[in-house]
């Protein structure tokens, strides 16, 4: 039979074989290192196989992952809300951490005072005074007993926590205390290091008269800074605790800055120096401290778009500051808004109308750990024992 005029049969095109995963662990680490820093990334990678799980669970890889991406993602906020310190997540699925995952019921007398570098710090107000350092992701707790010289009912406490850049898992806790009586004229400060397991020498500073504010610290360089209000007017000062020298210093604010409670916040400047933001209705002023201890007016900010979103609301209050995002949190009747100080963009993070101080929680989520709420689904992938360590 003639085949003239008929098309010749086509050859089937063969698809290229699927690319195989690299056999070299170093190459694979470099690939995994470039996964986006979302909470779901490493937990999902750890489910591929035992080899991937082993690589992303390695502490050295986790440090490199953090160094590669820089600042960790903001997962949500803890609230100063006795007795639970509720966690409010802000991310969408699959990166959203359910509130129940980071829930903790506190004993009577405990309150949250700081949150930084994936750690949360609580202080127990009743004798015997204790501090609790909590890692919600690793589900680890450390209990610290304050120095005996400061275990006194006549003292009030605040504190701050951080992980040193070269600490490899270690942490530091700064503790400040002041008199309840005598117009609160003496301040004490000391530093705890988990690497040595001891408190530093207690430093003290005498002031004429002041009242501590409940806001948490701001980390400026390697110093913790708190606001103090000087009686009898609305003038504030900054208490600086230098972690390198372990020294206390009081810094006066510009005479023009007189603010009511929750209208003033310590913030870092663009070059990492000391700055403040002063809120007045829907306007604010940012000041920065330059060499020579001189305060300079940096810029004014108008929250006109936020005013439109909060039409009819009371004037906002500053209820938190995210160091990693360089953003303040403003409380209104319409809810809580996060305002980024560089771009001036803002977004609503909750409909909460009641006043609560917000403690931002930013963290790289490790592999080998799920982000579920303990009720099935993407629950914990491996058990992590709770660890209690009491330090005398």
UniProtKB/TrEMBL annotation:
Where is the F-box domain positioned along the sequence?
Answer: 21-65
Tell me which Pfam families the record gives: Beta-prop_AT5G49610-like, F-box
Q: Which domain of life is it from?
A: Eukaryota
Q: What is this protein called?
A: F-box domain-containing protein
InterPro entries associated with the record: AT5G49610-like_b-prop, F-box-like_dom_sf, F-box_dom
**Region Disordered: which residues?**
1-23
């Amino acid at each position: 039979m003639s085949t003239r005029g008929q098309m010749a049969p086509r050859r089937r095109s063969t698809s290229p074989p699927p690319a195989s995963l690299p056999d070299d662990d170093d190459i694979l680490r470099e690939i995994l290192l470039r996964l986006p820093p979302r909470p779901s990334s490493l937990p999902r990678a750890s489910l591929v196989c035992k080899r991937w799980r082993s690589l992303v669970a390695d502490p050295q890889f986790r440090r490199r992952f953090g160094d590669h991406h820089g600042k960790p993602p903001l997962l949500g906020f803890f609230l100063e809300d006795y007795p639970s310190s509720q966690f409010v997540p802000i991310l969408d699925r699959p990166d959203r951490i359910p509130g129940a995952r980071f829930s903790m019921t506190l004993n009577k007398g405990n309150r949250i005072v700081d949150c930084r570098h994936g750690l949360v710090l609580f202080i127990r107000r009743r004798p015997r005074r204790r501090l609790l350092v909590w890692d919600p992701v690793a589900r680890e707790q450390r209990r610290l007993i304050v120095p005996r010289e400061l275990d006194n009912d006549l003292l009030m406490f605040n504190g701050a926590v951080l992980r040193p850049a070269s600490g490899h898992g270690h942490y530091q806790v700064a503790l400040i205390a002041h008199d309840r009586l005598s117009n609160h004229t003496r301040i004490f400060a000391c530093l705890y290091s988990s690497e040595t397991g001891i408190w530093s020498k207690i430093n003290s500073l005498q002031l004429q008269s002041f009242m501590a504010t409940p806001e948490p610290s701001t980390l400026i360089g390697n110093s913790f800074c708190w606001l103090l209000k000087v009686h009898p007017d609305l003038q504030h000062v900054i208490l600086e605790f230098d972690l390198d020298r372990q020294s206390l210093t009081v810094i006066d604010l510009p005479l023009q800055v007189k603010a009511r409670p929750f209208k003033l916040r310590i913030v870092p400047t663009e070059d990492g120096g000391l700055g403040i933001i002063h809120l007045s209705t829907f306007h604010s002023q940012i000041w920065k401290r330059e060499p020579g201890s001189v305060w300079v007016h940096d810029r004014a900010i108008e929250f006109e778009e936020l005013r439109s979103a909060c039409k009819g609301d009371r004037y906002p209050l500053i209820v938190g500051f995210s160091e990693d995002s360089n953003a303040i949190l403003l409380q209104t009747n319409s809810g809580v808004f996060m305002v980024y100080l560089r771009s001036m963009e803002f977004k609503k993070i909750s409909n909460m109308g009641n006043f609560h101080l917000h403690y931002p929680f930013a963290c790289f989520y490790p592999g080998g750990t799920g982000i579920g709420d303990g009720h099935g689904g993407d629950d914990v992938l491996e058990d992590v024992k709770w660890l209690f360590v009491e330090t005398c």
